[in-house]
Amino acid sequence: MPNIAVFIEQRDGEAKKVAWQMINHARKITDASGGEVWGVFLGKDAGNNAADAGSWGAHKLFTAIDENLAGYNSELYTTAVASFCSANNPDLVLMGATAMGKDLAPRLAARMDCACVSDSIDVNFDNGFTIRRPVFAGKCYTDVNIKSNTAVVGIRPNSFNLDQPGSDSATAETFDPGIGGVTPKATVAEVKATSGGAIELTEADVIVSGGRGIKEADNYKMIEELAGVLNAGTGASRAIVDAGWVDHSHQVGQTGKTVSPNLYIACGISGAIQHLAGMSSSKCIVAINKDSNAPIFKAATYGIVADLFDVVPALKEAIQSLD
Ligand SMILES: Cc1cc2nc3c(=O)[nH]c(=O)nc-3n(C[C@H](O)[C@H](O)[C@H](O)COP(=O)(O)OP(=O)(O)OC[C@H]3O[C@@H](n4cnc5c(N)ncnc54)[C@H](O)[C@@H]3O)c2cc1C
Questions:
Q1: C-alpha dihedral over 95, 100, 106, 107, to 10 degrees?
Q2: Residue 252 and residue 262: Cα distance in Å, rounded?
Q3: Is 101 a pocket residue for ligand 1 (Cβ < 6 Å)?
Q4: Fewest 10 Å CB contacts: which of 135, 152, 254, 261?
Q5: Contacts of 196 (CB under 8 A, 6+ apart)
Q6: How many beta carbons lie within 10 A of that of residue 103, not counting itself?
Q7: CATH at 116
Q8: Residues 128, 217 share a domain
Q9: Is 304's C-beta closer than 6 angstroms to any atom of ligand 1?
Q10: Phi, then psi, of 145 in degrees rounded to 5
């Protein structure tokens, strides 16, 4: 009867969608095998999270409310989640493989002296947990069996679909984060957001990305316009980031962001292994490239061998005409 804790990452009090995706998936596991799903929330106030966590399937929401937990701090958050774990002994701790989760998960696992499985895309339970993660830039998967009593697992955003929310509310409980005696060695001085209002790539359902095939910086507008009608995030290959056409925050790939949207549209991107490393777990990949031998077509669900200057505007108009 596994009890699964899900760390609910928040920014300015607003929970990340990946938390609800993990809770939703964890609930399917506990419905089949017994046990409970516990949301774990750190922040300066609990907001609506008990209702939200419950509607996505959490049995309980454990909160630690403290002004010092308003924003992320590696040491305070590690101590707080570790305090929760020692008091409640979850069999598995899930957190998003986000910038925050990638920092927190290994610290927490080290603190708890347990297994850590990073950047995963699936969790199953059958007399023990099996975690699936892509390796070799998404060319194959490994299934990891958990042998320790508990484990910390990072899950890529959008790995799990969200069902319709229910009307249940999670039972709200509080816990002592144990941070009273902790003086962090480092604190965040300032957060500088790059592009206000832009859709965060790692959370986006749809991403339209441009590569060197767009020819020059000004043509990235085409990518933004197609993304606009699809309510999508805008991505880029490293080639055009290095050329200074687009900010690095848009880069997808080994040295950029790892994304798993439902739909990834690659426009004029060749599909180098380092780019594929960041997007090959997308559910549906559409590639637009005039070279039929471009490696991106090996990863693509649908391939369009054509000039992107013809296809991208036509696609935008066709989607607009659906309204
Ligand atoms: C250590 C390391 C890390 C790296 N990390 C990353 C990373 O994180 N992300 C990343 O993207 N890359 C990364 N790279 C770079 C990577 O190897 C490639 O060089 C890069 O992805 C190529 O970008 P591109 O596909 O836009 O350009 P190109 O490889 O030049 O491809 C352009 C494509 O556009 C097509 N095209 C041209 N004109 C048109 C047209 N009119 N219509 C349709 N198609 C057209 C061409 O056929 C071609 O396939 C990394 C490399 C290294 C060594």
A1: -120
A2: 15
A3: no
A4: 135
A5: none
A6: 14
A7: 3.40.50.620
A8: no
A9: no
A10: -90, 130
CB of 175 sitting under 6 A from ligand 1: no
Bridge partners for 117 per DSSP: 153
pTM of the model: 0.86
Whether 84 and 221 map to the same domain: the answer is no
Domain that holds residue 210: 201-320
Query: pLDDT of the chain along its 323 residues, tens only?
Result: 899 999 999 988 899 999 999 999 999 999 999 999 999 999 999 888 888 999 999 999 999 999 999 999 999 999 999 999 999 999 999 999 999 999 999 999 999 999 999 999 999 999 899 999 998 878 899 999 998 889 999 999 999 988 888 888 899 999 999 999 899 999 888 887 765 557 889 889 999 999 999 999 999 999 999 999 999 999 999 999 999 999 999 999 999 999 999 999 999 999 999 999 999 989 999 999 999 999 999 999 999 999 999 999 999 999 999 87
DSSP conformation letters of 107-152: HHHHHHT-EEEEEE-EEEESSSEEEEEEETTTTEEEEEE--SS-EE
Claim to verify: residue 137 and residue 251 sit in the same structural domain: no
> CA dist 139 to 17, 201, 225, 279, Å?
27, 22, 32, 11
Beta strand pairing call for 263-267 and 4-8: unpaired
